[in-house]
Amino acid sequence: MAVTIKKMLVSQPQPTTSKSPYFDIGKKYGVQIDFRPFIKIEPVSAKDFRQQKISILDYTAVVFTSRTAVDHYFKLCEELRITIPETMKYFCITETIAVYLQKYTIFRKRKIFYTQNGQLEELVKLIHKHPKEKYLIPVSDIHKDDLMRSLSKKIYYKTATMYRTVSNNFSEDESFDYDMLLFFSPSGIMSLLKNFPTFQQNGIRIGCFGPTTAKAAIDAGLRLDIEAPTPEAPSMTAALEQYLKKEIGDGNGNGSQLNKSVPQE
């Protein structure tokens, strides 16, 4: 059976600008690209947060591992009518998140810290350089404990559930006839299997961004066809274009003559 990739689902919200690389890729390779998150984020209400018996102002530093955590931390503080002191310090896993903080606070080097490579190990080292701080870590109700397990007992910290990750269910009348699915979180893989408990991959191609997402796919018994980031493809769109160019050509009919059959399982 010949390989055909005509319709693809990207499990993220549709880009707000027409300059997204996804639109260029779709046009170049003749692929219909739909955007539909498999998961959605819901905020924890002030009432529910109070049940955790956490006082935000008891902490002198906040650790952010995503922009989602940043948004929900500041929105919850606003809902609770908490004025965050200027002395609060912020530790971010990437520079991108650190820069994003400018949406809510003035960027000062003495209060905002971030890793140079976006690696968890570097974030842990950064936190350990400031052992006297009391750390608050905003998380989803579904989260991995890798960071917390890596912190020494000398570090005082508390996780605070500030948002929930829920499955974005598909209705019974929605078609699901995609040749390729792209995922960006382990929760997306979980949502796929929840929505379609009898899902059979067969010839459907699956791409994952990030090692934890890839592991979740493999643990679920799925075949991984695209994985990013890599040194050659630092983004999902770069990895996607590399794959499509090899599989269905460069837009001029010049594709690989290899892999012209779908692996049977």
What does it look like?
By secondary structure, the chain is α/β, with parallel strands linked by helices. Helix content is 30%, strand content 21%. The protein contains 9 helices and 11 strands. Helix 6 links the parallel strand 7 and strand 8. The longest helix has 13 residues. 28% of the residues are buried.
> So what's the overall shape?
globular
β-sheet strand percentage: 15-25%
Q: What class would the helix/strand composition place it in?
A: alpha/beta
- Largest sheet report: 6 strands, mixed
Mean pLDDT: 88
Count every helix, treating DSSP H or I runs of 4 or more residues as helices: 9
Strand order of the largest sheet: 3-8-7-4-5-6
Share of residues in helices: 25-40%
End-to-end C-alpha gap: 14 Å
- In total, the number of strands is 11
Q: What Rg, in angstroms, do the CA atoms define?
A: 21 Å
- Could you list the spans in which at least 5 consecutive residues all have pLDDT below 50? 255-265
Taken in chain order, the helices and strands follow as EHEEHEHEHEHEHEEHEHEH
